[in-house]
Amino acid sequence: KMLGGLLAGSISSGFLLAVTMANAGGAWDNAKKYVEAGNLGGKGTEIHKAAVIGDTVGDPLKDTSGPALNILVKLMAIISVVFAPVVTEQSALDGVLFNKAFSGLAARDEVPP
pTM above the 0.70 mark? Predict the structure, then answer.
């Protein structure tokens, strides 16, 4: 159950983060192109300087960070498949040990010190 929750959470949050980063990077890139086309004063204005800074931040988001999360999600899926037998075996062993340690509690209705 733990491994499934980890995998589901990482895939869903990784997907949402990748989409958000790609969209934000594209929006900042399009904003610079919009200003350079002559809108809002065009090149050489303070707005253009701000758009260039925004594009500098947006390019890594759009080009590298979003696609890199795809690789991270695939890596987590592969690692979880590889380690699933180990986790399953350990959880079964923990259940046996727990049952042996606390099997007499129900009969005595007391908690060990």
Answer: no
Rounded distance, CA 13 to CA 90, Å?
Answer: 27
Radius of gyration over every alpha carbon of the chain, rounded to an integer in angstroms:
26
Whole-number Å distance between alpha carbons of 102 and 23: 54
If you search the block for the tokens 């086309």, which residue do you land on?
37
Contact call for residues 80 and 3 (beta carbons, < 8 A): yes
Q: What is the pLDDT of residues 20-49, one digit of tens each?
A: 888 888 888 888 888 888 888 888 888 888
What is the sign of the dihedral through the CA atoms of 10, 15, 20 and 21?
A: positive
Q: From residue 88, how far is each of 1, 50, 76, 105 by CA, in Å? A: 9, 53, 17, 26
